[in-house]
Amino acid sequence: MAITLNTSDADFETRFAAFLTTKREASPDVDAVVRTIIADVRARGDAVLKELTLKFDRADLDKLGIAVSKEDIAQAYRDADPATVEALKFARDRIRSHHQRQRPQDDRYVDPIGVELGSRWTAVEAVGLYVPGGTASYPSSVLMNAVPAVVAGVERIVMVVPASGGSINPLVLVAADIAGISEIYRVGGAQAVAALAYGTETIAPVAKIVGPGNAYVAAAKRQVFGTVGIDMIAGPSEVLVIADADNDPDWIAADLLAQAEHDASAQSILITDDAGFGKAVEEAVERQLKSLSRAETAAASWRDFGAVILVKDIDQAIPLANRIAAEHLELAVADPEALLPKIRNAGAIFIGSHTPEVIGDYVGGSNHVLPTARSARFSSGLSVLDFMKRTSLLKLGPDQLRALAPAAIALATAEGLDAHGRSVGIRLNLQE
Amino acid sequence: MAITLNTSDADFETRFAAFLTTKREASPDVDAVVRTIIADVRARGDAVLKELTLKFDRADLDKLGIAVSKEDIAQAYRDADPATVEALKFARDRIRSHHQRQRPQDDRYVDPIGVELGSRWTAVEAVGLYVPGGTASYPSSVLMNAVPAVVAGVERIVMVVPASGGSINPLVLVAADIAGISEIYRVGGAQAVAALAYGTETIAPVAKIVGPGNAYVAAAKRQVFGTVGIDMIAGPSEVLVIADADNDPDWIAADLLAQAEHDASAQSILITDDAGFGKAVEEAVERQLKSLSRAETAAASWRDFGAVILVKDIDQAIPLANRIAAEHLELAVADPEALLPKIRNAGAIFIGSHTPEVIGDYVGGSNHVLPTARSARFSSGLSVLDFMKRTSLLKLGPDQLRALAPAAIALATAEGLDAHGRSVGIRLNLQE
């Protein structure tokens, strides 16, 4: 049973504040182990990748090869269900179309005194994409991470994925091929992150690493950050559904469970202005749970982290939604567009009862890599901008330098930086 | 004496690669101390701020107050040199004009099958700006951090600055006022970062913390990351000057020293195609060093981390510049515009001999908070985007859901996520 909160209760604020700060994930301290692995990969390269892959993934890279071959890809296509391959292509096209609109414009202009200024965007040269093995090995995530990099113009995209027991989910290989990735290695864990950051005999280093992973992968990404860029460290997934009584409780229950089935640490929250509707959704959740193949996971998530919050009217949901700052927010209310401008903090908003969040996971076109754990208050989902960087441009002639010099020299002097002042003044014979 | 490298030497690649990976900063491990301070501030709030400020800054906040008052600001204006105040306003106006061009456009559109998609940008609600005390307390940095936040539309900008011995550099307070900051606290160190992240009786928490600081501040920012957003952790400053012989060696020497005087860990690099010119610049550096008030710092930086790299021709400088990925890059060559498209990795580029980097520090208009330590390969300088976040929007009607459902359900099935499939199917009566 999820918890129930009611804004009319005297202790609501206390309970809601506690609910907001509940940690949903244990963070095991694997820093020391990871530090050793990274040092080892830096020192001995491929040999370490082979040893650790044999140990953790029970796969012999001397036989399989570190690199996935063209023939491996061809075999993956033969092993994959053709309808699913078509669905991946359909998703890729929609993701690509949407992300093409995110490409930033360069800007170069001349200001009133003749100074030329500019902002120029260039793609990161090489990007590494980590893909987990096992049950979290999602082909859709391969598309969501790789397509924006391709659209950004990244020239080299390298995928690493552990081959548990020697094999890789064929749909992950197919998704990589469909996305445009041609360099794939069958390594995982902290050792794969180390190889991407520092390089080995087989794997050339990249400049940025993205993609989800377990605690070891997350710790490795934190440790190599600085040497390379990293994306956000994603937490367990979450959905907030704001729904009025004019919804089918079964639809809303299915949405809450779609989130809950990901992970026992996932979180599903319903805010409604109708107590009877809230009850009906809870009953539908219990009913639907029974027929899910991942019922145990979904039940644990709903029991431990699920919530139904009762508000007096839908407007009261707005400040709560902004404090929750959910990764996914569904607005299943009569006039969702009226709510929209008031919602400030959310990774993605799904507008109206016919927009289940799941569409955004796969084929909506927008990215499913979104800020979790309230970080939508200060960060954004993955986009083309994450695979590019901006360089400032500045160009002065003698006249412009003369115009800006007095203020620059005054500030340099005030900050006690003589050489700063001289660097400007010497060009105007203002000082030797 | 800086080191000298020559691309014609047989061991150039080895020496250049070693040069690239030289660490310029010790990173003292202050994590444990910082962890204690943060826990203490969370537990006891203002009382801890007062105790630690008395201990580390020798300032009594019971007398001075934690908050800087309107009268303190008025006094700071009286204490400041009027010409410097005018220079700060001039800088503020130029920074604002440039950054206003960085405001992102919202995008909302309907695709060919009628799906509505969008990207909506909103400002971070509250931002904390850390300003160091002592010699690194630069009013120009206050403008560079605060103005983009104001342009982004951040409603609450909070500045923290330690009052060493009870006093704050009046120009820092004036710069804050000129930038539009009205909430300032005289606290510094890890305790100030903790107060911004978690709040105390006096200081309400923020959603993101930016600004430079010492090892304690950097460690505190890393530790509170996740609870709040943070900007990059800036390393020591650096400049790369590519100059041909058609330059005044004294101008280039002044530019190299302007970087070196910041910090003994700063780095100044000259790449030239003329050995005689390189020598002349080195001689000018030695000559100019003598008259600098920060000669000791600048000399240490030039001796330990400075470099002169001799290339056969200017084109040979390009791949080196892209590997160095300098925070600041000056192109003091005959045709800098021809080089520009080939330069891929740089925080900011200063084009032509009349654009000393120092102009960008103060009054160029672009931001002086830029990626250091080769991180320009994957990250950008501070901009308006750092104070905003993007929410994805998705809206389907029944027809659009029907069009996208087959691919979504196929992918959900392939990933073994029943409830995902159901969340879509149930809306179309495809399954119960």
Automatic annotation (TrEMBL), chains A, B:
InterPro entries on file: Ald_DH/histidinol_DH (IPR016161), Histidinol_DH_CS (IPR001692), Histidinol_DH_monofunct (IPR022695), Hstdl_DH (IPR012131)
Residues binding Zn(2+): 259, 262, 361, 420
UniProt-annotated catalytic positions: 327 (proton acceptor), 328 (proton acceptor)
Needed co-factor(s): Zn(2+)
Known catalytic reactions: L-histidinol + 2 NAD(+) + H2O = L-histidine + 2 NADH + 3 H(+)
Pathway the protein takes part in: Amino-acid biosynthesis; L-histidine biosynthesis; L-histidine from 5-phospho-alpha-D-ribose 1-diphosphate: step 9/9
Keywords tagged on the record: Amino-acid biosynthesis, Histidine biosynthesis, Metal-binding, NAD, Oxidoreductase, Zinc
Annotated coiled-coil segments of the chain: none
CDD domains (UniProt xref): Histidinol_dh
Entries under NCBIfam families matching the protein: hisD
Reported function: Catalyzes the sequential NAD-dependent oxidations of L-histidinol to L-histidinaldehyde and then to L-histidine.
Record's protein name: Histidinol dehydrogenase
Gene label: hisD
